[in-house]
Amino acid sequence: MNKVLILFAHPRFEKSKTNSVLLAGADKIDGVTLHDLYEQYPDFNIDIDREKELLTRHDVIVWHFPFYMYGAPAMLKQWMDLVLEYNWAHGSRGNALKDKMVFNALTTGGARASYAANQLNRFTIREFLVPFEQTATLCKLIYLPPFVVHGTHLLSDQQLAMHATLYQRLLAQMVAGAFSVEDVCKYEYLNDWLAEFRG
Fold first, then answer.
1. Residues of the chain above pLDDT 70, percent
2. Res 27: pLDDT
3. Residue 66 in contact with residue 73, Cβ under 8 Å?
4. How many structural domains is the chain composed of?
5. Per-residue confidence band for 199, with pLDDT thresholds at 50, 70 and 90
6. For residue 108, what is the domain's CATH number?
7. pLDDT score of 174
8. Dihedrals φ, ψ of 115, to 5°?
9. What count of other Cβ atoms lies within 10 Å of the Cβ of residue 91?
10. What is the extent of the structural domain holding 157?
11. d(CA 37, CA 115)
12. Residue 146 near residue 126 (C-beta atoms within 8 A)
């Protein structure tokens, strides 16, 4: 059984219907820890030792955030800059996170079709996430495809509930660990894998 740590960063969580629904009940799943960085560190004064201890105790890390202006909110960048220290998370002696799994969970107002060459956003979500993928590689983490909820402003309550169910199913699968990383990584999104996975 894996332990899953959701590192959630949203500067306006109280105004985010989508993320509120996605995360409702997530921390009730046995083996899942929800860690709201803006709530924990409103002054951005991150407790590095505490964060390292949390990472050490978990097997799967989720970088969950709204995809604002093609990147993560400032808090998550601050967290990465401070916590993922040289010779702890990376470097010749930095093996603390070796072989743990990590993926991004994103919400975005743009439709999936708009993230492509010759479209509004010009690049795919995966291309925008290359810095996260490289960070994971540097830290010897196993980087999985992202979980993405597109078109958040247009989702009906029923559609939103379906995304929330899918996300909770994903978290439960991550806890169970009953999947092949090689198979999962063949998909562009974890959403796509879940649509076919029947384990």
1. 99
2. 81
3. yes
4. 1
5. low
6. 3.40.50.360
7. 97
8. -100, 80
9. 12
10. 4-196
11. 28
12. yes
Residues in the chain: 199
pLDDT per residue over 139-151, tens digit each? 999 999 999 999 9
CA distance 109 to 135: 25
198: Cβ contacts below 8 Å, ≥ 6 apart: none
Structure tokens at 149: 């909820």
Which among 10, 179, 175, 56 is positioned nearest to 167, based on CA atoms? 175
Per-residue model confidence (pLDDT) at position 178: 85
Q: Are strands 101-107 and 142-143 parallel, antiparallel or unpaired?
A: parallel
The tokens for 26 are 């997530």
First-to-last C-alpha distance (Å) of the chain: 15
How many Cβ atoms from other residues are within 10 Å of residue 79's Cβ? 22
pLDDT over 80 at 136, yes or no = yes
Question: Phi/psi zone of residue 110: left (φ > 0), alpha (ψ -120 to 50 degrees), beta?
Answer: beta
CB 119 within 8 A of CB 110: no
56-82 confidence digits (pLDDT tens): 999 999 999 999 899 999 999 999 999
Distance CA 185, CA 197 (A): 13
For residue 6, the surrounding DSSP H or E stretch is strand 4-8
Residue 118: pLDDT band (50, 70, 90) is very high
